[in-house]
Amino acid sequence: MMRALPSPALAFGAISVGGPGDRLPVTRGDRLAWVNRPDGLLEAVRSMDLPDAPGVAYLAGEARTCQAVRGHLVSERGWSRRDVVVKPFWAPGRRGMD
């Protein structure tokens, strides 16, 4: 997704990995936070110095984490819900999402 952005566009992100050896190479100089535990994703997004004008957020991962980050962007940062795209890949105890 980052490669598809035009060069003047900035990308901000928080990516959860199992450990430092699981980080993927990033070719753009964007602002990414690497978090070694999924529990830290919301705090990583909260601590980001995002531009004043909201853009579009793409959230993918565990359903509750996506909901928490969306809640932060909408309630605490004033983003519109339509500017936050959520794709939950799994949810504990949910059939078909485990």
From TrEMBL:
Pfam families, A to Z: SIP
Domain annotation SIP-like Rossmann fold: ranges: 1-92
InterPro entries per the UniProt record, alphabetical: FNR_nucleotide-bd, SIP_rossman_dom
Name of the protein described by the UniProt record: SIP-like Rossmann fold domain-containing protein
Organism: Planobispora takensis
